[in-house]
Amino acid sequence: MPFAPFSPFIAxxxxxxxxxxxxxxxxxxxxxxLADPPLMExxxxxxxxxxxxxxxxxxxxxxxxxxGNNGGDGFVAARRLLALGRRAVVIGCFDATRxxxxxxxxxxxxxxxxxxxxxxxxxxxxxxxxxxxxLFGIGxxxxxxxxxxxxxxxxxxxxxxxLAVDVPSGLDADTGRCTGPCxxxxxxxxxxxxxxxxxxxxxxxxxxxxxxxxxxxxxxRHDLGRGRLLGLxxxxxxxxxxxxxxxxxxxxxxxxxxxxPRMSGAAFLAGHAALATGAGxxxxxxxxxxxxxxxxxxPELMVGNAIPERGVDxxxxxxxxxxxxxxxxxxxxxxxxSLPLVLDADGLNRxxxxxxxxESLRSRSIPAILTPHPMEAARLLGxxxxxxxxxxxxxxxELAQRYRAHVVLKGCGSVVADPDGAWAINPTGNPGMxxxxxxxxxxxxxxALLAQGWPVPLAARFGPFxxxxxxxxxxxxxxxxxxLTASETVSAARRLLNEWSVRV
Length: 504
Hints:
elongated; seven-stranded parallel β-sheet; Rossmann fold
């Protein structure tokens, strides 16, 4: 039976730190010598508890153990399961002399308790009810070879409950990149603190539901770095009901600049999103001279070809902007503005090839929000998409520092980076968002938040969080992910924003 312990739509309520390998190792260096009982015993006990919570009694638990400390955690879990009357076997064909310290002691204790170590999955007499991946942990820096690669392939194909220990074997804990064969789990039990690689790039497909067990260690006593996994609690201070004594001017005027010939739909999507998520007034300045003077679908949008001289509070530049000389001229005019700015799509593409525009962006009094997808990020960095995807966090941080801007690097597990080095990963969203116009909606949504007074760094985080949660809500209601459209996410975002503003 597939593992599905949670509702299909639960917006994460709590944010939490994300620690990279070097930060985890620093904590271990302090905590391991002091821990009583040892951290390996605590980890093994946590694995056993998770298995018991998800596997009925009587089912066979198969634990894949490697030669290091991750394997040691697996041996402890297997011993504890046996002690609780559960059926558990270990698969591990390595030379026992390769195991050292606590890991070797854990193997010996399992064997002394009557445990069995099999040389491979082919030695099993029955299908397991659960498979635990305790092969390799967070420190693996090379592709996995045989026989472990074959075991990973076998385990990933099974219909059993599949639990990864700390990280799925083969997944880079810092970047979310599969270094070769990679275990595909239903759930991952990670220790001490959460890891960024579980939430971006390949991580969500491989890790499944992520559960964190601190093993009794108070990580807050250590330097936790600058990374966070976003949750709704991070935005509670700005999610509140509106006062009755307001008017449209209370919620700001968003100017969307784009809509070149044959690309006006992008600008209309951005404008509609801004209106639906709370902007008091939205004007669309289109580069297409033949554009309709109003939107038949959303007549509330003010449409024209001229930039208003006054009264604008926020700029959204780029949706359908095109690559014309006029597009460049509009960018050159608007970048020096002291107004909050969201720069997307063709605005980013023009920026990537124009040193003068780049300097104008860096010189702004209020840092802009840039929303590149990986290809646009690669252009802005002068590199290849593959280089961006190899380390999405590093790429977003470099963009933020190079352009002195807040950056939303879109994709699976969008990364938000600030010019001061802080960063976050957004856990909301689904494959239905891989469709045209989603970026335009995000730009308009960000513009609306800024117009309503959200601080720029917070808006850069809440925008993708809300947009992804809206798409998740729709999928939970049976709309998508296949065929989900950008315009559908607008109304869902409005619903969520109103719900959260009342309840949070």
